[in-house]
Amino acid sequence: MARHTTSPIHEDLRLVDADRLRRLVRMGAYEGHTGGLARGKLQANVVVVPRSFACDFHQFCVRNPKPCPLVGVSRAGSPLVPALGDIDVRTDAPQYNIYHFGELIRQKTDIIDLWQDDFAAFALGSSLTVEPTLAEKGVKLRRLGRGKASPKFRTRIKTSRVGPFGGEMVVSMRPIRLCDVDKVRVLTARFPHAHGSPVHVGEPSIIGIDDLMAPDWGDAVEIMENEVPVFWASSITAQDALARAELAISIMVSPGHMMITDVDARADAGTFKVY
């Protein structure tokens, strides 16, 4: 499949529906961030592991639903996730990170040439799903600027280990106005498959974060007057668990470059059939 280099401007795609946006990504016509796009649709991270580790990783997600909200699973060897729509995990995210024994070795805009018959793919709901709703309800989210990613921090909160997968929970942080914190709690709780409500608000040292200006992933954001740091569980927890497991190969979408699904963002937890 030919991958084109011309990319539309992010702002031009805000009103494009999920199907058309996904086709642009699949053709290689858009390789950028997906935050704020495809309003009303669930955005998902993608994790690809060899079949021999699929059962353990599946159980890791089940036991740690806050950082790893499982919304779709492919059949072994299949890149399709019918539960989420017309989805091909090899092409439908703008950018992928490729890991070799836990080390990031390269980034690609598709993984067609890397796909193997024994791969299994998992889709994890992304908090980017919620941002349009917050904006519609008057919650002001400060943008970091082009090419920057929201800060992520490793905490002292332990995950439930399964097989080779374990470690601490990773959280994302957004500065929120003090007057909006209660509203944010209520609104994000409606999206359990996009990490749901915050895991912590306020003093970062309580969850083991020493310096907000030194994130483990992403870019630092200063907390302004009348703001408070708000922390959500992050699917980078899965990336960290994969790195610790040191698999010969594993794949995740690059942070901020999510896969757009056909699932309504506010779907109830009971409506998801992951297979």
Q: Can you tell me about this structure?
A:
Strand 3 and strand 4 form a beta hairpin. The longest helix is centred in the first third of the chain and has 10 residues, at 18-27. Strands 1, 2, 3, 4, 5, 10 and 11 form a 7-stranded antiparallel sheet that branches. Strands 6-7-9-8 form a 4-stranded antiparallel sheet. The chain folds into 2 domains: 14-129 and 241-266, PSTPO5379-like (3-Layer(aba) Sandwich); 131-237, PSTPO5379-like fold. Helix content is 16%, strand content 25%. The model is unreliable at 1-6 and 268-273 (pLDDT under 50). The protein contains 5 helices and 11 strands.
Strand share of the residues?
A: 15-25%
Would you identify the regions where 5 or more consecutive residues have pLDDT less than 50?
1-6, 268-273
Averaged pLDDT: 88
Mind telling me the CATH superfamily name of the largest domain? PSTPO5379-like
Q: What is the overall shape? A: globular
Annotated CATH topology of the largest domain: PSTPO5379-like
Describe what is shown at a glance.
The protein is 16% helix and 25% strand. The chain is α+β, with helices and mostly antiparallel strands and 275 residues long.
Fold topology:
Elements: H1 18-27, E1 41-50, H2 54-63, E2 70-73, E3 96-100, E4 103-108, E5 119-125, H3 131-136, E6 152-158, E7 168-177, H4 181-189, E8 200-201, E9 227-233, H5 236-245, E10 250-253, E11 259-264
Antiparallel strand pairs: 1-5, 1-10, 1-11, 2-5, 3-4, 3-10, 6-7, 7-9, 8-9
